[in-house]
Amino acid sequence: MFNKIFTVARFTLHELLKSKILFVTLFIGFLIAVATYVATEFTYGTPQKVALDFGFGMLSLSSLGISLFMGASLLPNELDSRTVYMVISRPVPRWCFILGKILGLMGVLAINVFILSAFTISCLLLLGGELNQAIIFTAAFNILESLLLLLVVVFLSLFLNSILSSSTAFLILFLGHAIQETQSITFVQNRAVFEYILKFYHFFLPAFYKLNFKDYLVYNTSIPQLEMLGSVLYGSTYCLGLILLIIFIFNRKNLD
Amino acid sequence: MLNFRNITKVFKPEFLSQPFVALDDVSFSIPRGSMVGFLGANGAGKTTSLKILMDFIRPTAGIVEFDPVLGRNRQEINRKIGFLPERPYFYPNLTGRVFLHYMASLSELSDQQFVDGVKRLAPRFKIDHALDRPLKTYSKGMLQRIGFLATVLHDPEFIILDEPLSGLDPIGRKELKDVIIDLHREGKTVFFSTHIVPDVEEICDRVIFLKEGKLIYDGEVKTLLSRDSGDVFLIKVKSENIDLESLEVASVLPLPGGYYSNEVGESAKNEVIQHLLTRNIEVRSIETVKPSLEEIFYQLKGQNV
After folding, report:
1. For the whole model, what pTM was predicted?
2. Of B51, B94, B103, the CB nearest to A86
3. Which chain B residues contact residue A254 at CB under 8 A?
């Protein structure tokens, strides 16, 4: 069975890499380099911080963009082009197919993060900065955050069309980051109803802010290990739960 | 090979919309080694039936039973089935060869089996010249050919094709029909849907008719063709100065060279001949009119046969 998953993942990755996605990634990498150079000309004393901020900002945007838009069309495209029928009419269980598709797109995300991290690190080193563990962790958490968003959008695409699933996922992403600031507002803290709403949110919807460590990196403070471990557990558990839910629904879905 | 038993499928496209019955208690069977045409107009329920058969969608009621020889579970059965969906588009950025490799890998073929299979089948499907081009550069006919090749690459026993000949030029249709005939001769069971009646008449030994989600006919083509033949006769006459009105029979058609033809039923045949002879009109021939499958198809109009 794992052979089938990897076969679907391999050819999904192959197909996506043959599209123009890598050119976009390289173009964003080039933009990081240019924007970093221009920004350092207007800043004084902290060019490395600018390089990291621009680099990881762009990396985050592009990864989340890939998750949102490619994730939303991952299954609808297969149904529209009827390629899903060709694949699952072979001895391939549906869960292998969907897992392979997600794994293939995850490969694209990893390649995107790798290339843009390389551009960012190159800019940082050129500006006299130093490579540290926080950079690696931030990049790794970016993959986890993008994977979580990818799973959210794939889950939504089982019920909604591409536009609705990507816009709903974008809203969930926005809320998942905004909730951190919201829960620290005194007005919210003093009202029990908001407390319940926040608890409800945390119980069902993903708190994306838990997977974002860019601030630690930019302000050069060390990431608390316990928080990092908690985030890894939270992200992995949520992803696993979503994968199981997607498989459960996809196995029962009418593919018409 | 397959029993499609009492299948009903009801769709409810929107939450508040009326349910729509796509298939209404449809039952048919596909005997092993047969070549079965699945006929019906657009929207008759052919593709829905095939999707149920392939387990892409679930029926509202009824069951699909496969011959145990094919396997005991879906994965085993799928190993021995080759399915080509209607108008497939595949992955545009993959080359034909990579796409075939993908399908071969999923069908558990070794690399050597894949290479041998492509070498053997690509010239037969006349697609060998384009295997290293991206699929987005393929024409509709070429996509149909590569899809068909992928369908039979793993040497399935049971081949299911959804509108395999639609949208092809006459030469392409002829070539793919020849391939289907060859596969049948090799002992494969072939089941293909189409709305083009002459294709079924030409190559199938059995036919299944669907109309508006209901089964109209399931049986041999020749039985259906002989069912109505013998009832209608074509009488050809020749006369220089024929007075059509004097014939007192309807639907007399003038033919080139002073001939006239008249279609009559079994009961009126003798009377018309006698009528012609008493007026000294020369009867040149009497033929049994054999309706084509297409004519029968349009005559059925919902009646169960």
Report:
1. 0.81
2. B103
3. 56-58
